[in-house]
Fold this sequence. Notes:
Elements: H1 2-14, H2 19-30, E1 37-39, H3 41-53, H4 61-70, E2 74-76, H5 81-92, H6 102-114
Amino acid sequence: MESDDCQVLASLIRWESSLGGLIDAANRCDRHEGPSVRLDRDAVREVLQRCISGELDVLKLPRWAGAIHMLDRVEIDEVDVDVLTQFLFEMSSTELFEPITVDVCQRWISRMGHA
């Protein structure tokens, strides 16, 4: 069961299928004890690239980021915690920052490469 939990959380991090189903499954898993999964820059850059290419809907990025940001069992390495926490906060709080566009995604990819 624990490996299934990790797989659901990892699938959400990689945004592998319908976002609604992934978020619901990840929220159910997050309520139970189990191992954490890591969010890293590579995973975020991959999702951003897929939003830029049109494979993923860039307008759903705030929902994805907010879901990940709220999960207790998603961890971020200390070296990446500042930039990825800021990314998740800004992406999930578009009312406080700018609307999500392809240009915003491209800027974040660049920023993560230099942070």
